[in-house]
Write a structure and sequence with these properties.
Blueprint: E1 4-8, H1 13-24, E2 28-33, H2 42-46, E3 54-57, H3 63-73, E4 77-80, H4 87-92, H5 94-115, E5 120-126, H6 149-168, E6 172-177, E7 180-181, H7 190-203, E8 209-211, E9 217-218, E10 221-222, H8 223-233, E11 242-244, E12 250-251, H9 252-262, E13 271-273, H10 291-297, H11 305-314
Parallel strand pairs: 1-2, 1-4, 2-3, 4-5, 5-6, 6-11, 7-10, 8-13
Antiparallel strand pairs: 9-12
Length: 318
């Protein structure tokens, strides 16, 4: 029988790539947005699958909305990718951040428990939960030290999933996702801000790029590969949390210089340090160890930072 997948947050970067992957795997894909009539389906259109995805309205922070949708759809799998996605924005909207991430996750879990449904659920976690790893790669056993409202919300959702799995025997798991990019990223993310600026400089429409702290280090991957790991996690016999990352850490300065190098430009001519762009609290160094998912699920990232930057600059979606 055809499997039915519900992707909460289908109009985002990860939702679009995951929908593409599941459609190719033969799934019926239903995606949700808070308002299906007015949501931005640009990413689904760009990836060429808008006509193949059924988009419905679900408000994850409204229990009745989630209950009504899941009772009707009876999905085989749920991928909860909804909620606020920006660390920077979470400092400005911490309440909305917690409600959309932790509140939404709890509603999906509780509805599934109430219905007694055999549905399997994936929840999108974040490597931001680990905080600054002080040069040591984090693993699934590393304690959380969240440093932003976003990381606090993701940490809360992680423990909600773990509790429902242990207490109620539900098949639910969290993929602890390191940073992952693509041309489908919104412009508010610093990586896309850099890419957009380099494109404008090439066209002669811009003369400078203002950034805050360049001395931050992250594990950057290619989003299209990460959704494959999400799907693989729900195909296992036992539900388990995994860290999804490349295992390689680079600085934001590295990202910037790769972008300018792709355009044969000297970054020193255009870069301006702007203290007004600094966050109230930021992680300096974040490193990840994806050994567990590599050994148990045979998943590993293949696209490195230089190729990620090149693909984003060339707008190579797939």
């Amino acid at each position: 029988m055809t499997k039915t997948a519900l992707i909460a947050g289908v109009t985002g970067q990860d939702g679009a790539y995951l929908a593409h992957h599941l459609l190719n795997a033969g799934y019926r894909v239903i995606g949700s947005s808070r308002d299906a009539q007015t949501c931005d389906t640009t990413r689904l259109r760009r990836i060429g699958i808008l006509q193949d995805v059924e988009v419905i309205s679900i408000a994850p922070n409204d229990f009745r909305s989630v209950l009504k949708a899941l009772s009707s759809i009876e999905p085989t799998e749920i991928y909860n990718l909804a909620g606020q996605t920006s660390v920077g924005l979470s400092f400005e909207q911490p309440v909305e951040c917690m409600e959309s991430i932790a509140g939404g996750t709890l509603n999906f879990l509780e509805v599934l428990r109430y219905l007694g449904a055999p549905t399997r659920m994936f929840s999108a976690g974040s490597s931001e939960c680990f905080g600054d790893t002080n040069g040591e790669p984090a693993s699934e056993e590393t304690a959380f030290h969240p440093r932003s409202p976003y990381a606090v919300a993701k940490s809360t959702a992680y423990w909600q999933v773990a509790n429902y799995r242990q207490a109620y025997g539900m098949f639910c798991c969290t993929g602890i996702l390191a940073n992952h990019e693509s041309p489908l990223r919104p412009n508010r993310f610093v990586t896309m801000k850099i890419i957009a600026a380099v494109r404008e400089i090439i066209r002669g429409d811009r003369r400078e790029l203002r950034l805050g702290n360049l001395d931050i280090w992250r594990d950057w991957g290619w989003a299209q590969e990460y959704v494959v790991a999400m799907h693989a996690m729900l195909q296992q016999t036992i539900a388990k949390d995994y860290l999804i990352a490349t295992g390689k850490t680079n600085s934001l300065n590295d990202f910037v210089r790769h972008a300018f190098a792709c355009a044969n430009l000297n970054p020193e001519k255009y870069l301006i340090s702007d203290d007004t762009l600094l966050r109230p609290s930021d992680l300096r160094y974040s490193a990840m160890n994806p050994a567990l998912i590599s050994s148990e699920l045979n998943w590993r990232a293949e696209v490195g930072l230089p190729d990620i930057v090149q693909r984003m600059l060339e707008d190579r979606i797939l």
